[in-house]
Amino acid sequence: MNVALCGTFAGQLIFGWLGDKLGRKKACPFENQKKKNKTPAQQATQQNQTEQHKMDEEMLEEEVGETEEETNHYRIEIAVYRLETEKNELVEKLSTLTEEITSGKDRFIRLQADFDNFRRRSGKERLSVRSDAQGEVIESLLPMVDNFERAKQQLQPETDKEKQIDTIFLR
Predict the structure, then answer these.
(1) N or C: which end of the chain has fewer CB within 10 A?
(2) Which residues have CB under 8 Å from 16's CB, separation 6+?
(3) How far is the C-alpha of 132 from the C-alpha of 105, rounded, in Å?
(4) Higher pLDDT pick, 125 / 24
(5) Number of C-beta neighbours around residue 171 at 10 A
(6) 29: closest CA among 7, 62, 61, 10?
């Protein structure tokens, strides 16, 4: 750092922050320096102050480095937390979709079995209805056939035409 930084806003922020960290006043350490010629005692004091300032600058750089590392560490932790949260949401969504697929497959298998059963049942019912209908038709015709046979037995053919008709019915 140099003396030109003291008058800037960034310099005030940095030295104010360093002052807070070190428990000192929030002033630029270079403000009180004067460009006058100084006595050897003042020069020695100034040299000690310069060395102290260099040590303060090194400490500031270390502190800034640590805070940057901490900031990066927190950023990484936040990113990891977000990724873990997103991963957990995706895992939950995956399990939900897997359950839906499984239940959909089960429903499909059940519907397929129900349809096969319906097809077999309807085929059997169709055959049953057909045979029942045929039986009913035959049962309804039987009394009529019986009546014709009784009538035939009652009739005695007397003429040739009646005999021809009678022979036709015998076939």
Answers:
(1) C
(2) 26
(3) 40
(4) 125
(5) 4
(6) 7
How many residues would you count in the chain? 171
Kindly report, residue by residue over 98-139, the tens digit of the pLDDT: 999 999 999 999 999 999 999 999 999 999 999 999 999 999
Give Cβ neighbours of residue 57 (< 8 Å, ≥ 6 apart): 1
Question: What number of CA atoms fall less than 13 Å from residue 146's CA on the CB side?
Answer: 6
Is residue 18 over pLDDT 70?
no
With a CB cutoff of 8 Å and minimum separation 6, the contacts of 5 are: 11, 14, 28
First to last CA, the chain: 135
Tell me which residue of 54, 51, 64, 55 sits closest to 21, measured CA to CA. 64
The residue whose two tokens read 């005695």 is 156
* Contacts with 25 (C-beta within 8 Å, 6 or more apart), sequence order: 19
Q: In this predicted structure, what is the pLDDT of residue 151?
A: 80
Within 8 A by CB and 6+ apart from 28, the residues are: 5, 6, 7, 11, 12, 15
Name the one residue in this structure whose structure tokens are 């045979």.
131
